[in-house]
Design a protein that fits this description.
The structure is a single chain. The protein is mainly alpha-helical and 229 residues long. The chain folds into two domains: 1-54, Homeodomain-like (Arc Repressor Mutant, subunit A, Orthogonal Bundle), CATH 1.10.10.60; 56-222, Tetracycline Repressor, domain 2 (Orthogonal Bundle), CATH 1.10.357.10. Helices cover 69% and strands 0% of the residues. The chain starts with 7 loop residues before the first helix and ends in a 7-residue tail after the last helix. 33% of the residues are buried. Residues 11-71 form the HTH tetR-type domain. Residues 34-53 bind DNA. InterPro entries: DNA-bd_HTH_TetR-type_CS (IPR023772), Homeodomain-like_sf (IPR009057), HTH-type_TetR-like_transc_reg (IPR050109), HTH_TetR (IPR001647), Tet_transcr_reg_TetR-rel_C_sf (IPR036271). Keywords: DNA-binding, Transcription, Transcription regulation.
């Protein structure tokens, strides 16, 4: 039986174990990683581990939850800097890519969760989508985006961010391995192209980030009127 830390020192110890687990699981994978290696990396006595986690699986599931909480906070903090939905999308994606560049383990841990802890993986994605849907629903009601289905759009846009992050954060060059180095964020020209795509998909392009459309007909559809929304 484990319990939440009751002291500041206990919170710091648990945080050290989670940080070490993030590194070890990313480097070795769940099956190869061991509790002894994680406690060694955290510089914590192995017996102390069981004050906070019941097993390696318990640690893994809590790590997925911890990464989820932190990446959602990074996205929310970024989106909050936008004064409308177009700007919120841009800054929310920027926050996501900055987090994944700093914590590339997010990708491997979540993908391994499909086999190790499928419920944790599903919760990870559903929690992100829940927050995304709320923002899109409000934007739709305010006429800031086109008449789209917020749930479908949330899943689709989450996929856009995840794949762009995989290609340009984890694999910045052709020589990088499957999980890259996490040493770079998305190049600005790639980021701008992706944001322009997202804004067109949502039917909103802010004046200061407007991207020229390839044809006149496309311009008409890229910026819907209030009647269209």
């Amino acid at each position: 039986m484990t319990a939440e830390p009751r002291t500041k020192r206990g919170e710091l110890t648990k945080a050290k174990l989670l940080a070490a687990a993030e590194q070890v699981f990313a480097e070795q994978g769940y099956q190869a990683a061991s509790i002894s290696r994680i406690t060694e990396r955290a510089r914590v006595a192995q017996g102390t581990f069981y004050l906070y986690f019941a097993s390696k699986l318990d640690l893994f599931e809590q790590l997925v939850e911890d990464l989820n909480r932190r990446v959602r906070a990074a996205m929310s903090d970024g989106a909050a800097r936008g004064s409308n939905r177009a700007e919120a999308e841009r800054e929310g994606f920027r926050g996501f890519f900055a987090f994944t560049a700093e914590h590339p383990a997010l990708y491997r841990v979540v993908r391994e969760a499909e086999h190790v802890a499928p419920g944790a993986m599903r919760n990870h994605y559903e929690r992100i989508v829940e927050g995304y849907m709320e923002g899109l629903t409000r934007a739709k009601a305010a006429g800031e985006i086109a008449d789209i289905d917020p749930e479908v759009a949330a899943w689709a846009l989450m996929g856009v961010g995840e794949m762009i992050g995989m290609r340009y954060v984890l694999w910045p060059t052709a020589e990088d391995g499957p999980y890259g180095t996490g040493a770079t964020t998305v190049p600005e020209h790639v980021f701008d192209e992706m944001v322009a795509f997202v804004q067109r998909a949502l039917g909103t392009v802010p004046p200061h980030h407007t991207v020229a459309a390839p044809a006149t007909d496309d311009v008409a559809t890229a910026t819907p009127t209030k009647e269209d929304a």
